[in-house]
Every structure is written in C-alpha cells, then in structure tokens.
Write a structure and sequence with these properties.
mainly alpha; elongated; 19 helices; 61% helix
Length: 430
C-alpha cells in the first residue's frame, strides 16, 4: 500500500493502475476488519497514514473507500475508534481546505468527503457496496471450520501502529493470539466476553443458530440495523429465515411492556425484495400461528406483547399475516396426561385480554373503514371464530371506545369491522 500510493501520487491520477492497486489494498483490509479479523484500531492507523501530509485526489478516494467498506462495522462495533476516526478526518480535511482554497476541483472532492462524514455520523450513508459480501458473512457465522466460534473470536492482535511502526519480531504468529487476548480480557472482567450470548443461553436458546440470531437482534443499534444483521445470519443456514422469525417473537413476548422495535424489525424483513421478503413473510405467519397455539399458557404481560406484535403484522402490507390466525388459539387449554381438557377461562381470561388488546391496536393502526372491512372479512369462513370476534367487539372493545364525536374515524373502522363479522358468509361464497 505504501509503495503503490507513492507511485500513484507521482502519476497524479486516481484511476491509474497503481492507484487501483492501492484502493484494492484498502478494500482488503476493510473487509478483514468488517469480518472481525482485524481490530478497529487498525482502521484508525490506516486513516492516519492515508491523510497525513499533502492532500491529493488519490488520498481522498482512499479515505472514501475506507468509509464505504469499513464505516458500518466501525460505527456499530467500535464506537471509540469511530469517534477518533471522525474527529481526525474532520480535523485533517478542515486544515487541507484552507491550503487548497484556489483549487476548485480539490475543494469539491473535500466537500464530498465532508458530506460522507456527516452522513456516516447521522447513520444516513449507504453501504450497498457491502451487500455483495452478505453470503460470505453468513458463511463465516455458521461454518464448522471455525470450531463453533465466531470470526471475532480469532481477531488478530495488533500491538503497533500499522503503516507507521514496524511489526514486532515474529508477528503475527509469534505475537499474542486473538483467543488469548480475548480470554485475558474476559478473565480480568470476571465474566463472559459476550453477555448477549450468555443471555441467549440463559433463555434456553440451545442451538448456535438461535444464539447468533438473538445476538444479532438484541445487539443492533436500531430496527434497520437489526433487520440487516438478522438477514445476514439467516442467509448462512437453510432454516435461518424461519428461525429468525421465531427469535423475534421469542424476544417480543419477554418484554415487560409491548415494544414496537420488534414489529418494525419484522416488517422491515418482510418488506425486503423477493424472494427473501416473501420467505420472511411466510415464516412470520408460521411463527405467529405457533405463538397463538401457546398463548393460553402465557402470562398477562406476554399475552399483551404478543397481541401488539400480531396487530402490527396484520395491519402491515408487507407481513401479510391474516387475522384468521386467531382460530388456532386453544380456549380449552391443553389436555393433561389423562386426556382431560384444562380451562383458560375463555373470553373472560387471558385469551380474551389478548383478543381485546389485539383488536384495539388493530383498529388504531388501520387507515379507514374499507381497510378494516378487508382485514375482518376473511373471518366469515370460520363460523365459530366469527361469532367469537363479534362477542369481543361488542362486549370488550366497544365499551372502551371514546365518544363518537371525539373519534369518528375510529368508530367508522369499528362499524366496518363489526359489519363483516355480524353475519355469516353467503352460501357458495368462500
């Protein structure tokens, strides 16, 4: 990199062969960092090397390459190094802008670099260039070649400034290995190096795939980051999509209060382009049905959280979860060892609370009366479900509605929904 950068600057062309080789060296190092092989400090060392001395078009292009290929992982996994890199680049670029004030082309390139920095800081930058490596990342997270460990468990210890200081004798084979360094930090801390994975094990997520999905979901910065991380892990296993949906429901029903984060993650996954989005949508329906079948055994908090998540998925055009999933609820409970059916108190118990909360949330989310009618109309095919939903609407939802004058749109949606379940389907109509 050092040799090719020097040659490229002599040629003063960012598209020369030497400049492209230098850029490929940067991409290779950023991919090693992104896949968890190099620590975040290496990124800072490379940034320092690239932007030291006089600014040039070649160096600006290399700085942009660092941000595009390493910015996402640096921002989410190495916040301290991320802040140092941002502050250093801002300082260096500001100094160089004063020196090249008469060069309009260079000023334009520096302005563009400033814009990329601002977008990266505000999480608005596009990392589409990294999408082509999703399959590689998924393979690294599931391959047996790593002995059941994550790639980050083998991170290379770099006890010197890259491209500025000479490597210690025998490095990297003779230096401290990643596992030793990680193990040392963990032992000094007196606990595990990965608390999220420990939490997954404590919640009886026994398979490595489910633990990886749990870590991806709960370690995300926001719902978009969570959707991206889940899709990466899911891509590395045949059952990854279905297991990802199960983990979303698993985490959602364990919250103390309903958390919209999980609904946003689910909708973002189902809204992905086909065929991936369709696979997530299908698996989300299956996960919803499984939890409806077990809802009679849930506590009140879990039932309310499940109701809120299902209401969001039903109202979402991306997830396409039908309201008819309620037909899988077991109002009689499970049979005991002697074949006797237990009691879950019917509509007066926790299942009634689940249905009431789901319908109230659903009516709030739907846009208007026709939308409500479209959601409730399929219930006509199931006579017992239709009658049960009519009882819930009249006996539990209606008394809790605000006065009609204060919420005319909500009443319009309620009447449209009730109209659809107030009469059975006509003969010959499915």
């Amino acid at each position: 990199l050092r040799e090719k950068l020097e040659l490229a600057e002599q040629q003063e062309e960012s598209t020369s062969v030497d400049a492209r080789v230098a850029k490929n060296c940067i991409i290779f190092e950023m991919l090693l960092f992104s896949f968890g092989i190099l620590p975040g400090s290496v990124v800072f060392d490379i940034v320092r090397f690239v932007l030291k001395g006089a600014v040039s078009e070649v160096r600006i292009e290399l700085a942009l390459t660092i941000l595009r290929f390493g910015g996402r992982s640096l921002r989410s996994e190495c916040p301290d190094d991320f802040r140092e890199v941002l502050n250093f680049i801002n300082s260096e670029v500001s100094n160089h802008k004063d020196k090249v004030s008469e060069d309009e082309e260079m000023q334009t390139r520096l302005d563009y670099l400033f814009k990329e920095l601002a977008d990266l800081k505000n999480n608005k930058i596009s990392f589409a260039v990294m999408d082509r490596f999703n399959q590689t990342r998924g393979w690294l997270q599931s391959t047996s070649l790593l002995g059941g460990k994550k790639a980050s468990d083998h991170v290379l210890s770099v006890p010197f400034r890259v491209l500025e200081e000479d490597a210690p004798r025998g490095w990297p084979l003779g230096g401290a290995s990643a596992s030793r360094a990680v193990g040392s930090r963990a032992s000094k801390a007196g606990g595990t190096a990965d608390p999220l994975r420990a939490a997954a094990i404590a919640q009886r997520l026994s398979s490595e795939l489910r633990q990886n999905l749990f870590v991806a979901l709960m370690g995300a910065e926001d719902f978009e980051d969570a959707a991206e991380r889940l899709s990466l892990v899911a891509a590395g296993a045949k059952s990854g999509v279905g297991e990802a949906c199960i983990i979303i429901f698993h985490c959602a029903v364990r919250e103390k209060v309903p958390n919209a984060f999980y609904a946003h993650v689910a909708n973002a996954l189902c809204g992905r382009p086909a065929p991936v989005g369709k696979r997530f949508s299908h698996s989300m329906k299956r996960a919803a049905v499984q939890h409806m079948q077990q809802a009679h055994s849930y506590g009140l908090r879990a039932a309310v959280c499940l109701a809120e998540l299902c209401a969001s998925l039903i109202a979402s055009g991306a997830a396409e979860v039908p309201l008819s999933i309620v037909r899988f609820m077991k109002f009689g409970g499970d049979a005991d060892s002697e074949g006797n059916i237990g009691s879950s108190q019917g509509l007066g118990g926790k299942l009634g609370l689940l249905l009431r909360h789901m319908l109230e949330s659903l009516l709030q989310r739907l846009t208007d009366g026709p939308a409500a009618a479209a959601v409730f109309a399929p219930l006509k095919k199931y006579e017992d479900v239709r009658e049960g939903m009519l009882l819930v609407l009249d006996g539990q939802v209606r008394p809790r509605l605000p006065p009609q004058g204060k919420a005319p749109l909500l009443w319009q949606k309620f009447r449209a929904a009730r109209k659809e379940v107030s009469a059975p389907a006509a003969d010959g109509v499915a």
